[in-house]
TrEMBL record:
Domain of life: Bacteria
Name the UniProt record assigns to this protein: 8-oxoguanine deaminase
Keywords: Hydrolase, Metal-binding, Zinc
Protein's organism: Methylorubrum thiocyanatum
Domain Amidohydrolase-related: from-to ranges: 59-422
Taxonomic lineage from the root: Bacteria, Pseudomonadati, Pseudomonadota, Alphaproteobacteria, Hyphomicrobiales
A GO molecular-function annotation: metal ion binding
InterPro entries tied to this protein: Amidohydro-rel (IPR006680), Metal-dep_hydrolase_composite (IPR011059), Metal_Hydrolase (IPR032466), MTA/SAH_deaminase (IPR050287)
Amino acid sequence: MMESSARPRRLWLRDPLAILADGAGGGLVVEGSRIAEVVAAGARPARPVDATFDASRHVVIPGLVNTHHHFFQTLTRAHPAAINKPLFPWLMALYGIWPRLTPDAFRLATRLAYTELLLSGCTTAGDHHYLFPKGLENAVDIQVEEARSLGIRAVVTRGSMSLSEKDGGLPPETLVQDDDAILTDSERVLRLFHDPAPGAMVQIGLAPCSPFAVTKRLMRESAGLAERFDCRLHTHLGETLDENAYCLEAFGQRPVDYLEEVGWMTRRAWLAHGIHFNDDEVRRLGAAGVGVCHCPASNMVLASGQCRTCELEAAGSPVGLGVDGSASSDSSNLMEGVRHALMINRLTYGAEAVTHLDALRWATEGSAACLGRDDIGRIAPGREADLALFTLDELRFSGAHDPLAALVLCGAHRADRVMVAGAWRVIDGEPLGIETGRLREEHSRLARHLFGTA
Ligand SMILES: [Zn+2]
């Protein structure tokens, strides 16, 4: 029988230079969208294959999983209004210009961020979109369309802001929606796009933005909706000391007490940043299984602080990695994020406690656990065939000995090949179906036009 697509039925990725998987020195066999078997060094697959791919130049790792981003911010990278500021002044500067976002610009920003992520070896892209100015009511629809067209796995969270300055929040009136409009649209996008099944290419989560940008009612009702639709909950929490001070002043409670009061101490929830927690809060978050997405680049750029990754993991919280929005990390490169995670955690915990394998594990299995997924994040039989393949053919790797350590320590940042659900999406370092030069030109033109200062 002829295959309807170019994808062979059983493909053996043979004899990789190195691979991040147990007992897989001889590579792995992909069948359909999944990994059918791993092959021991020197062995052959248990059953015949239709095609082989010689991976002897490649270091093979599970596709990286990004658990926090704001794609639209690619349009306001390194913006003079916001650079060299901590979170609150940074946000106030950008709130002033973000209402200019248009659907066309948002579509290109989304395409660009997915492409950047994919090229960095990321196969599941999470985004937290919380900006719905007039005309951009269908932002989630745009993100789903773009993910489908690129073939990247997506976890799009329907973000929201409903507490404006006049009600004691931080965002301006122009950027908030009312709770009912948000909840109605959340339900709409869950019905349209959310697939809770294993192997899902698109999932929707609910993501009220932060304690200083939404009402408690919205937090509570979002948690109820998440139960009904079996989806994840996501928000920013514990990012800065300013946020702690805001919560104490506005609610008379610290952020974790706030989270508990609104019913979010649940395995469904994962938090962006999760930095300023005390020992008791770490214990409570861990016991509840609340996940934390560590965003090292953004935390260093905004000088927000150092996430207590090791204590959180020890307490029981899944810990994953995120690049965070491109106005604070200025890049959407998750492989660079792995390196940043290694470096900042070395500073926190010392040179022996956190290894390159820990940093890779956060970006793969850890991130998958934050998203509540056990079908991605590892190279093992039965898992989805989401893979990133890097060569060590650049000058920066010359002289490196341990190939997996070299990826992290020498600064790998562009995959040679990326496979999502058994299909190649990047070949020879180029994304299939995207002209990167044209995309960059159109995206940067709109960024200048909408947000330029000249
Ligand atoms: Zn963020």
